Amino acid sequence: MTISRRTARRSVQILGVAAASTALAVSAAGSALACTITEFSAEAKCEGGKGSIVVTDKDRFGTAATITVYLKSPAGSETPVGQPLVVKGSAEGTTVTFNENWAPKAEYRIHVSAGPNGQILDKDINPNLTTPAEGCSKSSPSPSATPSASTPASASPTPSATGSSSAPAGTPSNAPSPAAGSSNLAETGANSNTGLIAGVAGALVVVGGGAVFYGMRRRGANSGR
């Protein structure tokens, strides 16, 4: 049994359509896994008295996404905040910052778009961002609350200091002065070599006496002969 040319062509067409459908399905599944709205978050911050809106992308595949921020008015109208910013996420989180001096309890809508014409992602971060009840610029303290400058201490001496002040230089003191030369005498006695000299003199006397005694005895012996 042979297969006709028409049947073979039809089979090829069917296989081609199936392959294309499979490729689109795989691509869509991969895009869905690569970037989802749950990977985006927004926060109102203050730094140096200035406000900002920080959007964090934790898409570990790093899919490029465009972030647009809108300020919602109580009447329902929206005003864009700055220009749209592109972010490529990471597992640790990649941030983009919109400089915005937000007011307390203001509402912002943050839109995320990824892929050509938003084919991968085209959603808002839900819920909308509501800023804190206290703004970045805090009111300055009232004059009564401002601590006053300390008054410098008076230069006049206190009574206790006056009473305990020492006598001026040159005023004679009532304490008896030491006798003149007492300090030199004490030092001379402490530093003299009197004991050593006396000892040497005594030794010389003993030696001289012995020499005299020996000489007299020898002279007597010679006389007896």
Radius of gyration, rounded?
55 Å
What's the N-to-C terminus distance? 182 Å
The run of helices and strands is HEEEEEEEEEHHH
CATH class of the domain at 39-130: Mainly Beta
The main pleated sheet reads as:
6 strands, antiparallel
How does the overall form come out from the CA principal axes? elongated
Provide a concise account of the structure shown.
The protein is α+β, with helices and mostly antiparallel strands and 225 residues long.
What topology does this entry show?
Blueprint (H helix, E strand, L loop, with lengths): L4 H30 L5 E8 L2 E8 L6 E9 L5 E3 L4 E4 L5 E6 L7 E8 L6 E4 L4 E2 L28 H5 L18 H10 L2 H31 L1
Antiparallel strand pairs: 1-2, 2-6, 3-4, 3-5, 3-7, 7-8, 7-9
Would you give an account of this structure?
The chain has 225 residues and is α+β, with helices and mostly antiparallel strands. The chain has a domain at 39-130: Immunoglobulin-like (Sandwich). The protein has helices at 5-34, 159-163, 182-191, 194-224, and strands at residues 40-47, 50-57, 64-72, 78-80, 85-88, 94-99, 107-114, 121-124, 129-130. The strands form two sheets. Strands 3, 4, 5, 7, 8 and 9 form a six-stranded antiparallel β-sheet that branches. A three-stranded antiparallel β-sheet has the order 1-2-6, with no helix packed on it. A hairpin with a 2-residue loop joins strand 1 and strand 2 (50-57). The model is unreliable at 28-32, 139-152, 160-172 and 179-192 (pLDDT under 50).
Which structural traits does this protein have?
single chain; 225 residues; alpha+beta
